[in-house]
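Below is a filled-in request sheet from our internal design queue. Each sheet records the structural input a requester submitted and the sequence that came back. We keep these sheets so that new team members can see what a complete request looks like end to end.

REQUESTER: design group, bay 2
PRIORITY: normal
MODE: inverse folding
CHAIN LENGTH: 261
BACKBONE (tokenized):
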């Protein structure tokens, strides 16, 4: 556990905490400037306050998923680094996937504190940072063009309906590419679990095969229920809770099924 003591050292808390504090201050500065700009534009103050309250309320539950990610990664990477990655520019699905892939690449067999070394942590931390930095760099070159695209007139609702009737796909390339990427990731993980079953690596072991598949099915079913609620009752706000809710349900299922093994 010596490596975990180092990863939770005061100096790491100071470095990571300073960066998180800086980002928090920037958020507050922009929030204040946006509020003042709204008043200057003549927007009703009571409406702006309702928007602020609603935004703060709906941000609570989705942040539970981020907290779960920090807790999951802190067992092997310490608390400061996952806290920094998931507080500033990281994403829950990205950080966990890349950390796991990097751990396997350096030969420590996954995110386990018992096999974690200083060299392995350095590689994992570098890869987690390097792979996500390109968004910040690319905006330097194409940020102005992207802002012009956002300011351009949007497709009218009637056009969208006509497009659906004609079977046209009105989504952009980014949406399609992101969907394809996640389908690929999910397929790869499910295939690895099925491969363990086929290879006879223990059908009834905790880490072997059926438990990850069962938890994945529970998580998918939970997400399907959230999507059904959204479509059935036109509740777009459900999107803000679906990821965190599915994670919590899947974790509860993993604990329950794990006790049955």
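RETURNED SEQUENCE:
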């Amino acid at each position: 556990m010596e490596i975990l003591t180092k990863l939770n050292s005061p100096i790491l808390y100071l470095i990571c905490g300073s960066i998180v504090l800086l980002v928090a201050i920037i958020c507050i500065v922009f929030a204040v400037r946006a509020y003042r700009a709204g008043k200057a534009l003549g927007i009703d103050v009571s409406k702006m306050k309702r928007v602020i309250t609603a935004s703060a309320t709906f941000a609570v539950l989705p942040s539970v998923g981020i907290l779960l990610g920090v807790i999951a990664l802190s067992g092997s990477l310490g608390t400061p680094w996952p806290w920094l990655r998931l507080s500033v520019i990281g994403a829950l699905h990205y950080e966990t996937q890349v950390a796991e892939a990097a751990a396997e690449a350096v030969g420590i067999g996954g995110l386990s504190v018992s096999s974690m070394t200083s060299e392995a942590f350095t590689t994992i931390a570098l890869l987690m940072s390097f792979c996500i930095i390109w968004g910040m760099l690319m905006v330097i070159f194409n940020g102005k063009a992207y802002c012009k695209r956002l300011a351009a007139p949007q497709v009218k609702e009637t056009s969208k309906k006509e497009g659906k009737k004609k079977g046209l796909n009105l989504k952009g390339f980014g949406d399609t590419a992101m969907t394809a990427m996640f389908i690929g990731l999910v397929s790869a993980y499910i295939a690895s679990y099925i491969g363990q079953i086929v290879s006879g690596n223990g059908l009834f072991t905790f880490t072997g095969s059926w438990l990850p598949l069962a938890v994945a099915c529970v998580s998918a079913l939970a997400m399907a229920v959230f999507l059904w609620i959204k479509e059935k009752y036109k509740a777009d706000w459900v999107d803000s809770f679906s990821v965190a809710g599915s994670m919590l349900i899947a974790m509860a299922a993993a604990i329950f099924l794990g006790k049955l093994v």
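SHEET NOTES:
- Residues 166-170, 202-207 have pLDDT under 50 and may be disordered.
- Residues 98 and 128 are 6 Å apart (CA to CA).
FILED BY: M.R.
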